[in-house]
Amino acid sequence: MAIKPRHAGAGAILLLMLTAFGAHAAQDILKPEQAFRYSATADGDDVVVVWDIEPGHYLYKERMSFASANDEVVLGDAHMPVGKPYEDEFFGKMHIYRDAAEIRIPVVARPMNLRSFELELRSQGCADIGLCYPPQVWTASIDMGGSAPAGRMEQLLNRNPATAGADDPLPPDQAFQVDVTTADPFTVSVSWTIADGYYLYRDSLQINSAGEAAQIGAITIPQGTLKWDEHFGETQVFFDEVSAEVALQRASPDGGTLPLDIQYQGCKENSICYPIQNVSLVADLPTATVSNLRAGNDDTGAPISEQDSLARLIVNGNILAVMLVFLGLGLGLAFTPCVLPMVPILSGIITGQGETVTTRRAFLLSLTYVMGMALTYTAAGAAFALAGGQIQAALQKPWIIIGVAGLFVALACSMFGMFELQMPAAVQTRLASISNRQRSGTYLGTAIMGVLSALIVTTCVAPPLVASATVIAQTGDVVRGALSLFAMSIGMGIPLLVIGTSAGRLLPRAGAWMNAVKGAFGFMMLGLAVWMLDRILPDLATMLLWAVLIFMAGIFLGAFQPLDAASRATTKLAKGFGMLAALYGAALLLGALGGADNPLQPLRFAATSQDMHEGVEFKRIKTIEDLEYEIQLATTAGRPVMLDFYADWCVSCIEMENYTFTNDQVREKLASAVLLQADVTANDDEDQALLQHFGIFGPPTIMFFDASGNEHRAYRVVGYMPADEFATHVDRAFQST
Questions:
Q1: Residue 59 in 3-state DSSP?
Q2: What is the pLDDT of residues 578-619, one digit of tens each?
Q3: Fold of 171-288
Q4: Going by C-beta distance under 8 Å and a sequence separation of 6 or more, which residues neighbour residue 587?
Q5: CA 43 to CA 644: how far, in whole Å?
Q6: Measured in whole angstroms, how far is the alpha carbon of residue 47 from the centre of its chain?
Q7: Residues of CATH 2.60.40.1250 domain(s) within the chain?
Q8: Which of 183, 261, 334, 735 is the most buried (most CB within 10 A)?
Q9: Angle, CA of 374, 379 and 384, to the nearest 5°
Q10: Quick check: 282 and 260 in contact, CB under 8 A?
Q11: Cis before 222? omega within 30
């Protein structure tokens, strides 16, 4: 075997690095061919590359590759050791090799008369002193020696099974027989029948589709058998048979076909490992009707989650009855922390009309706001469900949050009388000529605020929302799902109609009282701006903003204005509330400087550890692979698992953190479980993949897995749940595992 290093230009780069380190340091720096020595030899139909790495040096796994210089030689995927995880300043998350590493590269096919070929090796490594070598390219001549004249896999694919010996490996399509069946209009089952003495890698199973009839949803693969693999380490494999359930999101209820691209890889015990196999099959999709939607339960009396029960109601119930139910559910949602911020927005709009506002005009403005909110909520919910996206996460980009917060600040300044918000004169004139209404621009602005409120302010999912989105996503029945969303939005808007209309009747028409009310709503608008920015600002910055805002509100109420005997009772009352606000603002300032991060408990840093009720301790996961690894560990230990989906911008998530998970009874119920948390605040590709893997539309969503690693979907929790109710729910969920 002849070894020839090829790294043109590498010497010049290395010389510059040596000069930078100084003459004394250069004496201790090895050349790359000295730091990273290797040998490449043939072993049957495999090429084995062994790296000998000097102490104080390492090679990147992800920067290593192998190729044949001869186009007639086909190499399979290299089997490489797992490596040690390493966070690299430039490359990010990597794996490295130290001391030694052995890589095995299968030769899938080569001409019968070819006995040797040139192997290209690419690598890059570093020294612990801080020096990183430029990428290296080496070539090694591989002499196949007395091995078979054709690649082993080529022989397998071309041989006659009838004449094969009993111990000869089977062709891959005989060793692993793949079949596709349709369980129901929303589920496809992909099964493998595995020959005796063969096994499949669980991590290699992938199912994709580019068909238009449906989209691939969550793929459920059972846990496999742990096996120590020479190349992959401890991994899960399947013997005999395995079946994966694939959830579908239908584009329409009509029947049709769905092409599937299936990928897998397996081995024969104590023999060869096959290259990755790709198979294309077609699944028949029957017509989907509302009666066969899988809502997570049959009629056997088994428990069913609230969102799944509502989904069944949507698809099976009378549409008018469904809308009435969702109207009532929306009315209940109107009093949750996710919807309450709409109250000062609408009230500020009504108050901003000044002394000319009438009851009729207040009602029409409120109705415009509510209809803008409802229509947008309905359209956006349907669109995101059809696209498989997360409703509230899609609009949590920093530039959107800053823009909306800036709008609230502008509205607050208008309330304080700094300027008057109105449309440009040219636009107002054109609108007036079209509608012959003097104040049409105001209705347009109110409708726009309703749109923004629906998209930005309501950032929490709830069972009715998930049920509607599930029906749209799974069945393609947009009409029923959208109507339920619209009814829910109208229910959420009923209290806003009452409050907005009452403002036109109850608020004073002129004088100092009117200015005081407008100022109060101005502070509410500023509070909404801080609440929005809390999602992207550090805790210290948010606490300081709250401190300044509330302290200034106290001054506005007259906290430091003198009183005399002639002062009115209302003035004294306002001063009292102003003093309380000023004191609270000062407490927030002290809390921020002391490291507290909860505006509701600004002086918590001063409490002793015995006085503080700590919440449960979660282990954070990021990817599907992280979750499967943790579930496998829990299964080995015989423990159930609870998975919590969390985001910083989710109000109900914060409620669960502060009020539910800190409860002693809840902590006791969760003591025996493995507690995992997926923080999807960033809403990046990995977060979306994890959410879509389970068909989840957003946080807060809590899932329960039994000691065998199987999820109990009937016990999913969507939205906020009080501590006592959650403790009972956990008890039932774990008893059923």
A1: strand
A2: 889 889 888 888 888 887 777 777 876 644 434 444 668 899
A3: Immunoglobulin-like (2.60.40)
A4: 602, 603
A5: 49
A6: 41
A7: 3-154, 171-288
A8: 334
A9: 125
A10: yes
A11: no
Which helix (H) or strand (E) segment is 704 a member of? strand 701-705
- CB 486 within 8 Å of CB 374: yes
What is the spatial distance between Cα 434 and Cα 269, in angstroms, rounded to a whole number? 80
CATH 3.40.30.10 location in the chain: 619-735
Sequence-separated (6 or more) residues with CB below 8 Å from residue 163: none
- Scan for tokens 């029960």, then name that residue: 309
CB atoms within 10 A of CB 348: 24
Domain 3-154: assigned CATH number: 2.60.40.1250
Contact 720, 336 (CB under 8 A): yes
User: Structure tokens of 503?
Assistant: 């403002």
Other Cβ atoms closer than 10 A to 400: 15
pLDDT tens digit string along 71-105? 778 888 888 888 888 887 777 788 899 999 999 88
Residue 665 and residue 727 in contact, taking contact as beta carbons nearer than 8 Å: yes
Which phi and psi angles does 321 have, rounded to 5°?
Answer: -65, -40
Give the Cα separation of 521 and 343 in Å (integer).
10
Q: Which of 19, 227, 32, 223 is nearest to 126 (CA)?
A: 32
CATH class entry, domain 619-735: alpha beta
The per-residue b/e assignment along 364-398, b for 16 or more CB within 10 angstroms, e otherwise, is bbbbbbbbbbbbbbbebbbebbbebbbbbbbbbee
CA trace torsion 596, 600, 602, 603 (10° rounding): -110
pTM exceeds 0.85, yes or no: no
